[in-house]
Amino acid sequence: MTRSLSPAQLTGTPETGRPAPDWRISDGLVPYPEALATMEARAAAIRADNARELVWLLEHPPLYTAGTSAKPADLVSADRFPVYTAGRGGQYTYHGPGQRVAYVLLDLAARDRDVRAHVHRLETWLIRTLARFDVTAERREGRVGLWVVRADGREDKIAAIGVRVRRWVTFHGVALNVEPDLSHYSGIVPCGIRNHGVTSLRALGRDVSMAAVDDALQATFPTVFGAPQSQEPAQGPAPNSP
């Protein structure tokens, strides 16, 4: 089954002159290789100006991905879940049910050609999304992702960020822990950071549905990226074409 976000305008923006990004939600678990193939095809179409930019919301089956800086020693349990080479920046991370992955395919050539600014916008997007659930998420120097301070003072990671850029089109994006099985993180050292833990909205006492998270992501996106959302025609759980 597939859920669609609310209908939206198809106008462009002064910042880019491009039409607004399409939004796609896949219900069910999307195999990671299919997600990579879909991103590759869509990015090529965006670069050729044959498709709109895309924000794709989905979940994966349990798996680990290795970024370009992944260290073998940080893969603690190599046989626990499938391990995929992601091609994005960063180290090892986990994806699985209960985690909202947002793949954000944007044309930076039509925006600002600034990868660091793109990462900063992704962080801001998640910070504003989490604020809607009364969760304060913060950046930390030298630690990728977004962090929350617990009552005992420890800091846990609630969202991961990893991007790849080819010919100024962005791949990959963010992963927000809504209600995943946090024990699945024990098979890796998440993002190579050993002295901090991971958390989720559910672990923080927020009983939030995935649909509510999707609504918040949609509502906060234009406040950061400057574009109204358009509705993409319904797709299956793992679309095979851009």
UniProtKB/TrEMBL annotation:
Pathway participation: Protein modification; protein lipoylation via endogenous pathway; protein N(6)-(lipoyl)lysine from octanoyl-[acyl-carrier-protein]: step 1/2
Compositional bias annotation for Polar residues: 1-14
BPL/LPL catalytic domain: residues covered: 49-229
Binding site for substrate: R88, G89, G90, Q91, Y92, T93, Y94, H95, A160, I161, G162, G173, V174, A175
Record's catalysed reaction(s): octanoyl-[ACP] + L-lysyl-[protein] = N(6)-octanoyl-L-lysyl-[protein] + holo-[ACP] + H(+)
Keywords assigned by UniProt, alphabetized: Acyltransferase, Cytoplasm, Transferase
GO BP term, example: protein lipoylation
InterPro entries: aa-tRNA-synth_II/BPL/LPL (IPR045864), BPL_LPL_catalytic (IPR004143), Octanoyltransferase (IPR000544), Octanoyltransferase_CS (IPR020605)
EC class name: transferase
MF terms in GO: lipoyl(octanoyl) transferase activity
Entry superkingdom: Bacteria
Cell compartments where the protein resides: Cytoplasm
Gene3D superfamilies reported for this sequence: Bira Bifunctional Protein, Domain 2
PANTHER family according to UniProt: LIPOYLTRANSFERASE 2, MITOCHONDRIAL-RELATED, OCTANOYLTRANSFERASE
Protein family: Belongs to the LipB family.
Function text: Catalyzes the transfer of endogenously produced octanoic acid from octanoyl-acyl-carrier-protein onto the lipoyl domains of lipoate-dependent enzymes. Lipoyl-ACP can also act as a substrate although octanoyl-ACP is likely to be the physiological substrate.
Protein name as it appears in the record: Octanoyltransferase
Organism from which the protein derives: Roseospira marina
